[in-house]
Amino acid sequence: MQENFSLKPFNTFGVEAKTKYFTEVHTVDELKIAINFSKSKNLPLLFLGGGSNILLTKDFDGLAVKLHLKGFTEEFIGENTIWLTAKAGENWHEFVLYCLSKNYGGLENLSLIPGNVGTSPMQNIGAYGTEIKDIFVQCHVLDLHTLEVKNFNLEECKFGYRDSIFKQEGKGRYVILDVTFKLTTENHHIKTEYGAIQSELEKSGIENPTIQDVSKAVIAIRQSKLPDPKEIGNAGSFFKNPTIPLRQFKELQQKFENIQGYPNGDFVKVPAGWLIEQSGWKGKQIGNVASHQLQALVIVNATGNATGKEIFDFSTQIIQSVKEKYGIELEREVNII
Ligand code: EPU
Asked: Which atom of ligand 1 is nearest to the CA of 129?
């Protein structure tokens, strides 16, 4: 147990914030000890995975727990199916690479997403046409109220776009211990229709891509427009893509002919990156904070010296601009602490 401990290395924005107490846990028993310590001192808890989806806006007056639960288990279910369970502290991309090395299909479109396996169900991580709900089987969680281990299946997780029970009614109640995915061992379902995957494959002259080829294409696309948190602090998309009623979208089309949107029933999902760019924010820097020059949806710690409060205030200004111009209220995707 460390006291007055800096969380700068534990958040991908790289902002400075101190926690009153800090500990790392490697087993469920160690986790329970940490939780009991926090209960005995009446301290709030903060669980840290990869630190890739949080913004620390102030010091934390509680116990921060870094989850180091590691390991994979495999279970063959049928001819073409394997259930692969990864513990929460496994790095997401290393897990994806492990699956690709074994030729297990299903995760390739989710290559190079920062963060750990344990946080992937929280916001139903997604990219390039796949969300984890598409391959999710179950996860084990520790219930902070009872200290019992529970199992959540696909339905119980209530996954939505960047959403799950763990962000809604279960918020703050459960710690995810491991996650099981259903992957294919052959006859993989190759998904290349999203975004630039197809054109990226064509560049390399690949006509019948393998899952490894798809992964390489996704990695190349991500590297071409998303900043690497190791080089410049960020937490990926800062906002969700807003969903608005079709009627509102049609009204906006009258005023803004080139507005982009992906219809879904009576609603339309509008790319937040486009709204932010059109509101004049792409590449704009105020003090230590900027909207990324290649992807406006990503806010970066441009100088490395930004505070969490500065980043938060910058995001508030973006929300106000987009609201004034388009009447759409952007919602933050990153967890604000
Ligand atoms: N766009 C702009 N300007 C920008 C950025 C985007 O006009 O500065 C337009 C693009 O031209 C494109 C549309 O917005 O037509 C969508 O852009 P993109 O394909 O880059 O995806 P996104 O909607 O901005 C989402 C996810 C990403 C994920 C990509 C690819 C959210 C909040 N973000 O971004 O996820 O990698 O799709 O699937 O849904 C993350 O969550 O951290 C993340 C990076």
From this structure: 38
Tell me, yes or no, if the pTM score tops 0.85.
yes
Q: Catalytic annotation on 131?
A: no
CB of residue 274 inside a 6 A radius of ligand 1 = yes
**Nearest residue CA, atom 19 of ligand 1?**
195
Cβ partners under 8 Å of residue 203, min gap 6: none
229 lines ligand 1 (CB under 6 A): no
> Of the residues 35, 51, 67, which one is the last residue of a structural domain?
67
SS3 236: strand
User: Is the domain of 207 the same as that of 187?
Assistant: yes
State which residues form the domain around 272.
233-336
195 pLDDT more than 90: no
Q: What pLDDT is stored for residue 77 in this prediction?
A: 86
- Ligand 1 centroid to Cα of residue 297, in Å, is 7
**pLDDT tens digits, 17-52:** 999 999 999 999 999 999 999 999 999 999 999 999
Compute the distance between CA of residue 12 and CA of residue 311 in angstroms, rounded to an integer.
Answer: 13
Give the pLDDT score at 68.
Answer: 96
91 and 205 within one domain:
yes
CA angle 178, 184, 187 (to 5 degrees): 170
